[in-house]
Specification:
The complex is a heterodimer. By secondary structure, chain A is mostly beta strands. Chain A has no helices and eleven strands. In chain B, about 0% of the residues lie in helices and about 50% in strands. In chain B, the strands form two sheets. In chain B, strands 2, 4, 5, 6, 9, 10 and 11 form a seven-stranded mixed β-sheet that branches. A four-stranded antiparallel β-sheet of chain B has the order 1-3-8-7, with no helix packed on it. Chain B starts with a strand and ends with a strand. The chains are: A mainly beta, B mainly beta.
Chain lengths: ~120, ~110
């Protein structure tokens, strides 16, 4: 079955760019579903960041839209998140997830801390 | 954005209890409502999609109902492994939004 694995730096400086990658295994990223990023600040609830289709189409949360880019690399069977101009408020566990409008398969999550 | 409001925010229950959690949407979302379970330090797990469809592998004591703006998640007989936080999520339109969560703990 499909498995997802996030990777990237666990510490990002304020005003820097958060960059994460989600590797898809056990299936192709070229499938009839979207691929999302979801985050969860420590002790808080879940927030959808955005999604990408294998063709490159994207949808973003307007609360983050000016700072976020999600892209897909079909050759590597992975998709990526870039979040610019980060602050302490962006400290969270970041999850990637397979998306059929609901999220049925999740990565293990990676904690990203924004701190100098 | 569509606002999702869960009630209660927390509840205490005993093993064997019937538990009901409510989720209300700020506008009609048809049946585009999903439920997740999250245990501390763990990944959210999809329980119910499209209001009432049980995800594969999820025990039948979990059920969902509702349409429009009002939805419920019911656990027919609470088990030890069900103590967790539950989230609803609307998939009617982007941005997808979640409820604030309902924490179910041991009475």
């Amino acid at each position: 079955q499909v498995q997802l694995q996030e990777s990237g730096p666990g510490l990002v400086k304020p005003s820097g760019t958060l960059s994460l990658t989600c590797a898809v295994s056990g299936g192709s990223i070229i499938s009839s579903n979207w691929w999302s990023w979801v985050r969860q600040p420590p002790g808080k609830g879940l927030e959808w960041i955005g999604e990408v289709y294998h063709g490159g189409d994207t949808n973003y949360n307007p609360s983050l839209k000016n700072r976020v880019t999600i892209s897909v690399d079909k050759s590597k069977n992975q998709f990526s998140l870039k979040l610019r101009s980060v602050t302490a408020a962006d400290t969270a566990v970041y999850y990637c997830a397979r998306t059929f409008a609901y999220f049925d398969c999740w990565g293990q999550g990676t904690l990203v801390t924004v701190s100098s | 954005d569509i606002q999702m409001t869960q009630s209660p925010s927390s509840l205490s229950a005993s093993v064997g209890d019937r538990v009901t959690i409510t989720c209300r949407a700020s506008l009609s979302i048809s049946s585009r409502l999903n439920w997740y379970q999250q245990k501390p330090g763990k990944v959210p797990k999809l329980l119910i999609y499209d209001a009432s469809s049980l995800q594969s592998g999820v025990p039948s004591r979990f059920s969902g109902s509702g349409s429009g703006t009002d939805f419920t998640l019911t656990i027919s007989s609470l088990q030890v492994e069900d103590f967790a936080t539950y989230y609803c999520q609307q998939s009617y339109r982007t941005p997808y939004t979640f409820g604030q969560g309902t924490k179910v703990d041991i009475k």
